[in-house]
Specification:
The chain is of the alpha+beta class. It is built from ten helices and 14 strands.
């Protein structure tokens, strides 16, 4: 069952379309998620950098830690670290933090990385504040670094832990060294948006793929239904052997319609070929029956009464049988697609050779080289000369000339000619316009049919028209060889 399903064009088209859409959706979804995360992370970095730089500017102005406005915000973690990594100031409600490089959240928390006692920390804190007595000189200004570094971590503020994007800005004093201000912006919006988008994609993508698969299945089913109709009709034609039937042609004017038209043309050609084959067999049987019956009768009479045996008639019937058999064999080879070969020969010399010894035949032949089967082209000339002699009153003329890319043989007689309505009909097999005379002369109606088939096989043509003397003019055209 699985093999049959995958053997269907409709199933393969549906599977391919679904896979393509799935890959496209995955790529688009990944791009959307990455872009969304990048945008929201960039927004958080911008907020964190703005907060850190604001605190750094206040710190560079020498403002005391307890006067820094950035430390008063309840929802934003801020830390200030000295150059030894100790926390010298932090947000009021900050309880724990990671991602800032400090081991503690607030100044004086246990577990700090720097050594020394509380007094040293206090002294350093006072120095950093620049809050000595009123008689002291104003604290010197610090220099805020233009670069901003970013890191990701967590912070616990007032018992709530969340992810943050931290911005780090350095402030350097000439007398107190370098300080680093860390300020964080929450990543909750980024996490929530990405999570929501991911959930929507996980739910929407399968539904969309199902819709694509269903739509593709229905569309391909509708598109291929005419093909199935063509297949059923062809199967019925094969079973019934009725070549007169035709497949239905859809009114879509697409590839399927053109396939149906081509199929019907093929059926028509096949029907015509089979019909010609049937007529050929029937006509050949009829043509063979007469000389065989006549020959048998003469032999039976000769066996019973030797003195009554007509030897001339028996020989005539035997020759007629031999000629007819040769014609049928040549037609069979032509129908089988026998290639004419590529031997080169002079058409003028061949025409003179076949006209030699025939009474009343005049030949005017130039030297014109052609390529093909010399024997088959000679058979064409023989058939044309026999036909012309059979219908001529007194004279037959043969002319061979070169005409552009063609070698032309013209055979004309001074007989009654061929009526215009019959000029194509005479090239059909077993056709005789004068039934009685043709049969008396031994013609079976195959000579002109053979001549045209040979001409076509050689890439040429054979036509009939009216001769200057009023009879028939047959023109054989074959490609010249230069």
């Amino acid at each position: 069952m699985t093999r049959r399903w995958f053997g269907s064009v409709r199933s393969r088209a549906t599977l391919a379309a679904t896979l393509v859409v799935a890959v496209a959706l995955l790529a688009a979804g990944a791009a959307v998620l990455l872009s969304l995360r990048s945008d929201l992370t960039g927004q958080a970095e911008s907020e964190a950098a703005s907060a850190a730089r604001a605190v750094a500017v206040e710190l560079s102005d020498g403002r005391p830690y307890d006067k820094l406005t950035g430390l008063d915000e309840d929802d934003r973690p801020v830390q200030i670290l000295d150059e030894r990594g100790r926390v010298v100031a932090a947000s009021e409600d900050l309880e724990r933090v990671t991602g800032t490089g400090a081991d503690t959240a607030r100044p004086g928390d246990p577990g700090g990385r720097a050594g020394g006692d509380a007094d040293d920390d206090a002294d350093d804190s006072d120095d950093a504040n620049g809050s000595d007595g009123p008689d002291d000189d104003p604290a010197p200004r610090g220099e805020v670094d233009s670069d901003t570094d970013f890191s990701t971590g967590t912070a616990t503020i007032d018992g709530t832990t969340a992810d943050y994007r931290f911005a780090a800005v350095e402030v350097e004093f000439e007398d107190r060294g370098k300080f680093t201000v860390y300020a964080g912006a929450p990543l909750a919006a980024e996490r929530s948006a990405v999570g929501t988008a991911t959930t929507a994609m996980l739910i929407g993508f399968p539904l969309l793929l199902a819709v694509v698969a269903g739509a593709t299945w229905l569309v391909t089913r509708r598109a291929l239904s005419p093909v199935e109709g063509i297949r059923r009709e062809m199967a019925a034609i094969t079973a019934s052997e009725d070549l007169a039937r035709r497949v239905p042609v859809p009114a879509t004017h697409d590839e399927v319609a053109r396939l149906a038209l081509t199929t019907n043309e093929t059926l028509a050609a096949l029907e015509s070929s089979v019909e010609r084959q049937r007529r050929f067999v029937a006509d050949a049987s009829h043509e063979l029956r007469s000389p065989i019956a006549s020959l048998r009768t003469q032999l039976e009479v000769g066996a019973a009464h030797p003195e009554l045996l007509d030897l001339d008639g028996a020989v005539t019937d035997t020759v007629r049988l031999q000629t007819l058999a040769a014609d049928l064999l040549l037609l069979a080879r032509l129908d089988a697609g026998e290639r004419p070969g590529d031997a080169r020969f002079d058409l003028g010399a061949l025409a003179r050779e076949h006209a030699e010894g025939r009474a009343g035949v005049t030949v005017t032949a130039d030297e014109v080289p052609v390529a093909g089967s010399r024997a088959q082209v000679g058979r064409v000339l023989t058939n044309l000369l026999d036909n012309a002699r059979r219908h001529a009153r007194s004279a037959v003329t043969v002319g061979v000339r070169a005409e552009g890319e063609w070698a032309v043989v013209a055979v004309a007689d001074d007989g009654d000619g061929v009526p215009e309505a019959d000029r194509e009909h005479i090239f059909e097999r077993f056709v005789r316009l004068d039934e009685a005379r043709s049969r008396d002369d031994g013609g079976a109606g195959l000579g002109l049919a053979i001549a045209r088939d040979v001409a076509v096989r050689h890439g040429g043509t054979l036509t009939v028209g009216r001769a200057p003397a009023g009879g028939a003019l047959f023109e054989l055209r074959l490609p010249r060889v230069r």
